[in-house]
Records
---
Amino acid sequence: MSPAPTDLLHFTERGSGKPLLLVHGLMVTGEMFGAVVEALAARHRVIIPDLRGHGRSRGLPPPYTATQLAADLARLLDHLAIDATAVLGYSHGGAIAQQLVLDYPGLCERLVLVCSYAYNMATWREWVEGHVMPPALQVMGMRRLARLVAGHAAPQLGCERTDWLASLMADQDARAMASAWKAAMAFDSRSRLAEVACPTLVVAAANDQAVPFHHARMLHAGIPGSRLVVIDAADHALIWTHPEELGRLVGDFLGA
């Protein structure tokens, strides 16, 4: 077997069956899916990459645009000889998943967008938060910012999970994350949502403050034939607070 290309994303695999690509969000890694991997891998070959600039793919240089990150995923699938796959994107990972579908429509058989968006600068609050975060990353550093961000989720996650999340975020490179955040602010798929032709499930959390519900409505309204499911009493951390429900929703949709 020839060695993997040096510019290939780092990835792990679990399970067997039809492929399922999991795409993580900003400032974390593929490890974020640990709570649902076992359930998904029971019926799927689950591929879990670290996006460019994140985790064990941090050595890959900018840009961190959605176009580049989607191209990285397409290259990974080609390396694995996967012609088509289901794709699940979480938070900003959902934006990258949309870009993958739009740029490489034949690669995606089914699409799941969890706590995600088409355009994350849609309100004044989002615009302010988006422009404050990159300099905050540079000034505070990843460790302090990670404790602050993870601390907001502590009441829902508990101490052990909160500490783990803070550690995962703190391990990222602040300069790369600031660049990735700026690239995320530039993402805007609103005018192209109607081009998404594969069956699509949009999952929203009723109490999501990071990606409020109006984003899920926008995705659902824009993607033809999409299905929208709202998980009550959940917020942006639903993958850890409601893993069984999320796993069941995704499994039923992929098996439909």
---
Amino acid sequence: MSDAPKQGAQPAGRSSGGGTAARGGASWKVPLAAGAALLLVTAAVAVVRFTGGPAEETGAAQEAGASDAPSGSAADGPGDAAPAGADAPMARRQADDPTALGDVDAPVVMVVYSDYHCPYCGRWVQETQPELAHYVESGDLRIEWRDFPVITDTSEDVARASRAAAEQGAFWEFHEAYYAATEEPGERDTEETLAGVVDELGLDAGRFDEDRAADAAAAQVERDFSEGLSIGVTSTPAFLINGQAVMGAQPLEVFEAVIDSSLEAAGTGDGGGRQ
């Protein structure tokens, strides 16, 4: 099956057999429309704050033709940035979360809504995420992953597979390996790609297949997707950094600016490490 992005893709559920169906019927459309308006308008208003110029058109919405609104900007997200001492909106801070990186009590939490078949998500994972590692290592930043599978008919299959990898303690290894395996453009078979990643990581293939087909994996992905819809995520990648939204695979300096300002607001210094 081809994994090429669907033109005009809308946030829709993927059955385990690769078909498409609206998640939960039409109920998701109301919060999606309301939240999307908030995210996109605030992103447009605040773009000059971090980039000093017009929004760069990045993200899956532009590739799929899903929206004409500016999506490549950093902005105050749903609500304003969290005040000093307040928890980051949407952060779960679960100590045993295998899909999170960094200290559970880090002053800044970046929530990442992403799709394994989104080329801009892959770019962020390969180019930007490694450059933010020093914030994680210093205890200043926690990164929490959320699955938002909207790009292809098999996006949800891969999201569930990542949860199966997490059951074997290899979520982030899977995360990096799958994006690397799909870096080049063109059609590819999802199952063949997954088999290659499983072999590369040395995972128990039988257990992997059992876990990705389990109800638990489906429930985890559904929870993430519903959360994204509730705050108006319409394309990937989308980020919430202590309540401030960054839409699209923005340049590194945009993420650094938001993280540093969030650290200042949290009273931990001027960014780049705890004082």
